[in-house]
Amino acid sequence: xRAFMVIVAIASLxxxxxxxxxxxxxxxxxxxxxxSAFGALFSVPPYRALPEKGRRAARxxxxxxxxxxxxxxxxxxxxxLPGPGARRxxxxxxx
Length: 95
Fold this sequence. Notes:
By secondary structure, the protein is mainly α. The protein has one domain (2-78). Helices cover 65% and strands 0% of the residues. The chain has helices spanning 2-31, 37-41, 52-78. The two termini are 41 Å apart. 15% of the residues are buried.
């Protein structure tokens, strides 16, 4: 189950990047201003300045971001980490 969640998280990360760059393309087409790829990946899409196709891509971007965040939280909640001061079992030495 955990491996499946990691695979879906990687696919969701791909979708986040793809849809954000798609929104960037539609934003550039609508306004004529260039938006850097790096800045586009780490900013919220300009929803009001987009045509209908761009708004559809922006909604899909938000869904992909929410899916990615929920998967990361789910992975964090299902992963058990050793408590403070926990030691690994050491194999007994054989003579």
